[in-house]
Predict the structure.
Amino acid sequence: MALMKKNSCYLRQDLAQVWADKPVFDAVANIDGEIFRDKEGRRTLRFELNGRSYFLKYHQGVGWSEIIKNLLQMRLPIISARNEWQAIHFLEKHGIETMTLAGYGEKGINPATIRSFVITDDLVNTMSLEYVGEQWQQRPPSFATKQALIRKLANMAGTMHKNGINHRDFYLCHFLLDERFAEHNTFDDNTPVYLIDLHRATIRHKTPKRWQIKDLGSLYFSASRVPLTKRDKLRFMQIYSGLPLRTMLREQADLWREVEYRAQKLLAE
């Protein structure tokens, strides 16, 4: 686990003006709002400032006991918000729609007591793709809509893994799109889909196969209620791989077999 060698802080102009004469970390620590999580040294909330809505993730420091517990469980502990803002930058660089950064910062050297935060614009008037299965069971989509959404998710997953980032919580609930989708039930290649909750994302030179399987299996599991045909699944696999269908089936059979196994294992839990 690398120690952080220096403090860092960035505020977009709208926040910089509000906190110009205040200690930033103290101001962030005292923000009130609608709390979504407050445990293990991390607080997540929605707040409003000067008529704009934001999301804050504030890390107070997880303590050595939490770090050791995670390491004993062979899990990489989340000790800072740095992970999330670096992942946002990475996705933006590779053309993947995600949250918009409004501010971030990190203070301290000791991994157990690092204070950090990330603030993003609130993705207002959006809905989660976790409801698409129920929606499509009641109102089947057009062929064009279904294929466009499959292309979108396959291209997002493929771009991420080819460039060395895996999400680690790659479920449909972490994809947001315009809430009007629930009404009009249409989707095309230009419809934005935003990937959120990147605090566990990992960036490497190359995504290991086991993490490809974990991401893809999680996504497949979360789509269990979506009415997908065998052809739909093959289309996703082919777009994700970027290979001709026959080549993909020959060269990646083991990968997709393990993805199926992980999804079925999650369904059985």
